[in-house]
Specification:
With about 80 residues, the chain is mostly helical. The chain contains three helices and two strands, in the order H-H-H-E-E. A two-stranded antiparallel ribbon has the order 1-2. The longest helix has 28 residues. The relative contact order is 0.20.
């Protein structure tokens, strides 16, 4: 299985960041690069679909969903799939 970020995940991430205070600089830089980031994510998704040979990728599992496949619980990263 492969893992790549999807466009809905990027939208969820940006929604969670504090663009007014703590992650202001990060949000500004992502905003400046957003078109290129989106373009690269689309290319990655297209290439993944072209070579996956019947195997499922995380893109297939998460496409249409903005849920991250990982979460922080008790200071440990766990899978949510």
């Amino acid at each position: 299985m492969w893992y790549y970020s999807t466009l809905p995940q990027m939208q969820e991430l940006l929604h969670c960041l504090d663009g007014d205070k703590y992650e202001r600089d990060l949000v500004l830089v992502i905003g400046e690069m957003r078109d290129e980031i989106d373009r690269q994510m689309q290319i990655t998704e297209q290439l993944t679909k072209a070579v996956q040979a019947g195997r499922k990728s995380v893109i297939d599992v998460l496409n249409g969903s903005s849920r991250f496949p990982f979460a922080l619980r008790n200071n440990k990263i766990v899978t949510t799939l």
